[in-house]
Amino acid sequence: MADKNLISRSLGVTTAEVEKGRLRFFAKAIGETDPVYLDETAARAAGYRSLPVPPTFLLCLESEGRNPQAIVEDVMGFDLGRILHAEQAFEYHRMAFAGDVLTFDTRVADVYEKKGGALQFVVQQTRVTNQDGEHIADLRSSLVQR
Questions:
Q1: Chain segment 62-77, per-residue pLDDT in tens
Q2: Four-point Cα dihedral 86, 16, 91, 125, nearest 10
Q3: Which domain covers residue 58, as residue numbers?
Q4: Would 67 be classed as within a structural domain?
Q5: Where does the FAS1-like dehydratase domain start and stop, copy by copy (predicted)?
């Protein structure tokens, strides 16, 4: 059972370099057809300095360098067999591009229960910055244990 004392606890700070090949692979996997996500020449012609990061790709990078199972089991105290992904939200402040090195600073934002404790929620908040310290995005996700 998650404890309210987890609120504000750091779940770690990680960094990830945004690679062109991974961006192209992700864009193809999600069915993106806009050439700015696939062709650097098209991206530059559109005014971008390189391939832009597709919006939900930040979630892929955020999980790198962590052990999600250890966080869920050891920090949150949840049983992997009883959890569900409850919510995901993104708030963007500026674009990220291939070649950027992004830092992901994740903390527990909230812990609460519903249905008399039958459902336990842990909300994570991640601040994403680039190599210049510019605020790229805030990611928010919730897990629920039933």
A1: 988 888 888 888 888 8
A2: 50
A3: 4-18+54-145
A4: yes
A5: 7-138
Q: What type of residue sits at position 34?
A: D
Question: Quick one: tokens of 89?
Answer: 């939200």
Q: How many domains does the chain have?
A: 1
Does 101 score more than 90 pLDDT? Answer: yes
Ramachandran assignment for 65, one of left (phi > 0), alpha (psi -120 to 50 degrees), beta (any other): left
Phi-psi region of 3 (alpha: psi -120 to 50; beta: other; left: phi over 0): beta
Kindly report the CATH number assigned to the domain that includes residue 81. Answer: 3.10.129.10
- Any idea which residue has 């966080």 for tokens? 71
Give how far the C-alpha of residue 4 lies from the chain's centroid of Cα atoms, to the nearest Å. Answer: 22
In the numeric block, the tokens 């404890």 are attached to: 3
